[in-house]
Amino acid sequence: MKPVGGALTLGIETSCDDTSIAVLAGESDLLANVVSSQLVHGAYGGVVPELASRAHVTNVLPVFERALAEAGVAPEDIDLIGVTHAPGLAGALLVGGAFAQGLALALDRPIVPVHHLEAHMVSILLEKPAVRLPAVALIVSGGHTLLVHVRAWRDYRILGRTRDDAAGEAFDKVAKLLGLGFPGGPAIEREAANGNPRAIDFPRPMLGTEDLDFSFSGLKTAVLHWTGDRDPAESLARRADVCASFQAAVVEVLVDKTARAAGECDAASVIVAGGVACNRALREAMRARLPEIDVVWPSPVLCTDNGAMIARTARLRADQAVGPGGFDVHASLPLP
Ligand code: KG4
Ligand code: ZN
Predict the structure, then answer these.
(1) 143 CB under 6 A from ligand 1?
(2) Is there an atom of ligand 1 within 6 Å of 17 CB?
(3) Domain limits at 64?
């Protein structure tokens, strides 16, 4: 039996190293959100594009079947298909794109090609549909660091971006340097819990500059030099301090620029989204710095890559649905 709660949207995400498919009823009734994270990249300390594509090919059908089973629906119950078409790894995007088009053809259903970064912002609507606008969104993931003025949903203006590494990328690279494994963010946060954030005075890149851009590659190099200047035993003994001090530097810059952006845009709320939004130090510092406005973030499973945010964004843009063959995938594409 078809569940109540409105039209059923399938959300397909394969832009990086997570294969995820969700089933959304109406606008916020999440019936299933299956995420299969690829462990194969751990040995390399970063995502290997070709291995990611191959793993998506292996995973996409079982993930689809699990999502339908968890939601208790049949393929023909699906009314709309959303799929990430940009930005991301081209080969990885192609797998989800081809799967979505095959499904659309077989079921005779429309597809909405979804921009991954819009989806990270929109993920907040799944749990907090009444989030107040205008908002400033800080998108911090493994591939992107972006400050966006959300004037209304579907009406965005980019305020700032990273000039080199993304915030999550910095966490991943520093973790690799310290032998903490991949993905680096959660490992650094765990290690930082036992360290002193004021122990080492790492640089705060671009803090205090006029613009709202970021840069994290110099900070990563500062950590590299700090450890390189010491013998391995000392570096290891002080690893918790290094993690806590590095995390404090990233958080301070992210919070400062977001707070300034919120002031400039007269924002009613700040939305923190993307994988790095799982970081508790970042969340707490953001709330402490902006006590007068709503600072919101999705649950951890909706911060990292997931099909639910793709399904929700497809609903937001249902009027822009196309037929199978009606879209391409793009490794990079401006925010719509
Ligand atoms: O949004 P996401 O799943 O994928 C991309 O679109 O890139 O973000 C993944 C990134 C990784 O760089 C990971 O290290 C980071 O999010 N991350 C964290 C935490 N959890 C995940 N960074 C800092 N603290 C965390 N707790
Ligand atoms: Zn992402």
Answers:
(1) yes
(2) no
(3) 8-122+303-320
